[in-house]
Amino acid sequence: MSEPADSGEPPAGLRLTTAEWGLWQAFRNGTEHDLRSGEPELDDPDGDHTWGPERSVRARVIALLLLHGPPPLLGRVASLHLTGAFVTGCLDLSGGAVEPYFELRHCRFAEEVRMPEARVHTARFVGCRLPRLEAARLTTEGDLHLPRCTVPEGIRLTDATIGTDLLLNEAVLGSGRRARALAADGITVSQELQASLLVTDGQVSLRGATVGSSLHMFGSCLRNPTGRYALYAPQLTVEQVASFADAGRGSAPQIYGATPPTGTRYALAAPAETPPAAPGFGRAAWDPHRTRHFECHGGMVLDDGRFGSSLVIENARLEMQRDQELSLRRINTPELTFTPQLPERGLIVLSGASVEKLMDRASSWPADHRLWMAGFTYQHAIPKEGHFNVRERLQWINAATAEYAPEPYEQLAAMYRNTGEDTNARIVLLAKQRRRRETLPLPGKVWGVLQDWTVAYGYRPAQAALWMGVLWLTGALLFEAHRPAPLKDGEAPHWNAVLYALDLLLPVISFGQDTAWDPAGGYQWIAAAMIMAGWVLATTVAAGATRLLRRQ
Predict the structure, then answer these.
(1) Alpha carbon of 336 to those of 333, 354, 433: distances in Å?
(2) I want to staple 175 with a disulfide (CB 3.0 to 4.6 A). Which of 144, 181, 259, 397 is the partner?
(3) What residue intervals traverse the membrane (predicted)?
């Protein structure tokens, strides 16, 4: 191992097998070394068939080629392309600097692959079976590809730095004896993180991760039957779009390569009453013309996330226990698309979140106080599917406030005012006052009912105008039948019951009738009541007219 490799010959004593010798020559030539038999069933890395010595390559030889490989042949670029091999031993590149490009396809690894602290240009494992991948603080200048890989003991990419894209499409990850199927806290991906049709059995942890472009989880199925969270990604930063949505025609271009002959390793979600299979390695062919829903079996946490373009949770299936939640606390994004299928249990939390445009549908929100959104702010709320009128919006707020809180009502009213829907804004504010009335003591409730019945707390000026008309007509008929005596004989104007009643009702304006006549007894109290009612009703009508003129 210590002899120089400048000659291009393997070190003495390495004793290469036929398969390894072919790999050595292919490395120098920059070509693929394919050890497959040509029969899909025999070449499946997850299959039960034994791969003999004719397909075996020692991990020690691969590490030697990658870390201290021979020079390329003239006119060639040295690179490692290995397909269909059984890799024995532990492939350990810990702390190493790997210069050549390497790609391993449809390989079966006997032991875990170790790459912590390593520096590589581009690394690709495609359709392989790896017991585990340890790659904390890995640095790549290019891509790290793991599409269609099966990793029963999970992947660790904590604090890794990926120069371009990280691909996990159609991978199947287990957690083994650990809690996490994917541990990628603090990872930095310069461009896209694609994890469409990913299946996990264990927690996916992306705490503090940074994605320079977009995060895609189209049709992925995340399960964590033994823990609280299936996806734990607080403080996640995505510069563009984060998608947790269906995999279908629209997302097919995001999925790496073509479907292999043996089908993908996408495991269908087991029914709720069926216990999950062993670490996740069912197999079912995926038809790109069909749709797979994004599924999350367990809690989903995106607290304090920053999404530069939008966060999309569309048609997702959320299976949670009563103490689990879809948590979007304090997220910040220009657009939130929220149209998941309504979860039967668990909480949806939007407390402190800030979005500019909310696109949702009424049937996605729980109606039994499983929605928390104190401090949730939005500029526009647009139904993505169907209708979502102001009455349904009020039901949405009621579901989020087991106890009265004014902020959700004021936020909704402000949204309607900003879009020019003043009528809806007044409906919301009226509902706020009625909800507030329920928290008042008995005298406050009685006074509130009176305000509601007469002037609708001032939010329905037409109702106040109607009451004024009723009082005017009633007063005119009453005083026509019971004319009051004049204050001064011979100086009173001609009696007019209609103008007299109007004089009593209208503040400020006077037709000279109310000051010329002197009602007596009970009619004096009736006149006083009409004056007080006139002040309240006329003020309400004037306020409504002012709002109308200001709007025009």
Answers:
(1) 7, 9, 29
(2) 181
(3) 525-549
